[in-house]
Amino acid sequence: MASRRAYTRFLAQLKPRSQLRCPRASNLSAPSSRPHSTTATPAPSRSSFSGRRIQFIAIAGALTATILYKMAADIPVALDSPTLAERDSQLKREDGVTERSPMRLRMEAFIKEQQQEIVRALEAVDGKKFRQDEWARKEGGGGLTCVLQDGNVFEKAGVGISVVYGTLPKKAIMSMRANHKNIVAEGEDIPDSLEFFAAGLSLVVHPHNPMAPTAHMNCRYFETAKPDGTSGAWWFGGGSDLTPSYLFDEDAIHFHKTLKDVCDAHDKEYYPKFKKWCDEYFFNKHRNEARGVGGIFFDDLDETVSDKENSFAFVKDCLRSFIPAYVPLVEKRKDMPFTEQEKEWQAIRRGKYVEFNLVHDRGTAFGLNTPGARVESILMSLPVHASWKYMYEPEPKSREQRLVDVLREPKEWV
């Protein structure tokens, strides 16, 4: 306000603009009542008056800028609230990630650490290095996709993480509410949109040797955000399953026992429940057979375990179990002899794997329908080679037929 009053006084003291103009020629020659000086005073030139005008404009402009700056500082300006991605970026810059950080930041840090652990373990088996591609989303977040293709042991192995920020439209909120009643509090109207965060690690390993099984592992965390950035609805999901082309019972038993030990350490009811869920989920309904010999699968883990910390601890143990559950099986089978016919059967089984991922898998569908999706990362799970033969059926009582029989009637392995 003081600057504004000073500017007003300054304008009042200035002469009228007409007095700053050059006098007319007739006035310059008219007699004056004042005593004449013995030395004639030269008439002001046009350039001198132009200079005074420029000086006035510069002074006025500077004062105006000062006043506007003062007014901008004094008057609060309404700005858009920071997005969830911006809030998290600031938190990581200021405090890093600690045990007191929001769960979404702790989950992100954990999957990044485990990704590199798994990559190192698989590189030790294969002898070749993974290609690591980092990518970003303009909506917020990004990921790191690690792929080893045409290796010594693995035809294709992919270990990818993604951290996704976005906004759920009203239609998506209504759809998700069918499985997650707490996404909108009971009695509240469904909002037009909700910010969300999703982070996960997904891996698939396809060995060259048809005697070595394919394996899949996934863990993920999802939450919505309230307007102030605090967590709204949340849930964990994940699981691990084994897909052999040739069935070795001892391999299936080892894999399932490792997962059961993890489950039992948290809740004795987990393994039978999640094993059944896996058998039902990884099932090609159009062929009436399972994708593989199963493992565990769980989703929407907010009601099964109401405490977020317990859920997180369980998910971490599941992810850490992948290396001891799977790597010994590859080490045992990777150098076994095989025939061209057995390799052909592997390609046919991988065709069934592709069918499930593209037709039934919810994670693939969610990824492909997310704005700004990185398709290469989403489809890294697909094998390099797959085959489809019209009306193909294995020979009766063959090893191939035994696998199909088990896939149609899932077994209890432990």
TrEMBL record:
Pfam families from the UniProt entry: Coprogen_oxidas
Protein name: coproporphyrinogen oxidase
Stretches the record annotates as Disordered: 19-48
GO aspect biological process, one term: protoporphyrinogen IX biosynthetic process
Skewed-composition ranges (Low complexity): 29-48
EC number(s) stated in the UniProt entry for this protein: 1.3.3.3
Family, similarity comment: Belongs to the aerobic coproporphyrinogen-III oxidase family.
UniProt keyword list: Heme biosynthesis, Oxidoreductase, Porphyrin biosynthesis
Organism: Coniochaeta hoffmannii
Pathway annotation: Porphyrin-containing compound metabolism; protoporphyrin-IX biosynthesis; protoporphyrinogen-IX from coproporphyrinogen-III (O2 route): step 1/1
Subunit organization: Homodimer.
One Gene Ontology term, aspect cellular component: cytoplasm
EC category: oxidoreductase
One Gene Ontology molecular-function label: coproporphyrinogen oxidase activity
Protein's UniProt keywords contain Oxidoreductase: yes
Domain of life: Eukaryota
